[in-house]
Amino acid sequence: MLDVTILKVLHETVTRARDALKYIQSCDVFSPEAGFLTEREAEQVERAWQQALDEDWSRTRYNKDLPFEPTDPDPSIRAYQLKTMEYAFLEKRPLWMLERFDKDGEALLKAYAARLRAASQCCRDALGAGNIESFFEEYWKEARDFNEGKVLRDQHMGKQLDNAEARIRQRYPQYQNKEPIRVLTYIGAAHEPEAYTQIPVRLVSLDAYDKGLHAREQCTPEVRRQILVKGILKVFTWLPVLPQNVPLLSFDELVAVAKESSAYAARFTR
After folding, report:
1. How far is residue 166 from each of residues 39, 163, 176, 210, measured CA to CA in Å?
2. Residue 11: is its pLDDT beyond 70?
């Protein structure tokens, strides 16, 4: 049987990676979040990772060659994933990728990913232009697309958990007779694969998730402020004029920062 722990995080930072370390140390198999992987890609990642473990790569070589490299464009999320994966490598934990779509799912995913990228860019463009209302309108369009994809991915991950035991035992001979096999997967706090699996799982939430982040009708003024904070840090983080205390500012102060940052950035794009 499998003993599955699902570790949910919202604030993906290097600090959160350190919080995940004790869970990595207590698992047999590590299953990191990697959206939109196909079956072929998942197998390639698992083989490359296992080869690096078998060859006993040094920490220096690991960080240079990266047998599994995150693709998330958000710098803080990428830093979190890189550090978490480094911990898993140093603890010599084999990987089992929870997302491994077949060919039909691959076509659906590519279309969804393209739509989500386009929506995200519209959102960034609106904020970059200093148009706050347009930013929120585009944000809620992006949230709608996110929610559609989240259900698709959660259903898939739940199904993969149902089938994981036999495939893990086949992939890793050292676990053929082990009972139970302790599997740790980390995912974003919004995801709910536990709703779509038939096996029992243990949920550990390192951060509280407010559904108002992706549901307009449930969005409180504080969540709206948080959305603007995240947007500003994504779009304007390269500007030297950006205040260091952005996460602590009021909504009105954030609006002023966004407009000032937009005007400043426009000097370099004319």
Report:
1. 16, 6, 9, 35
2. no
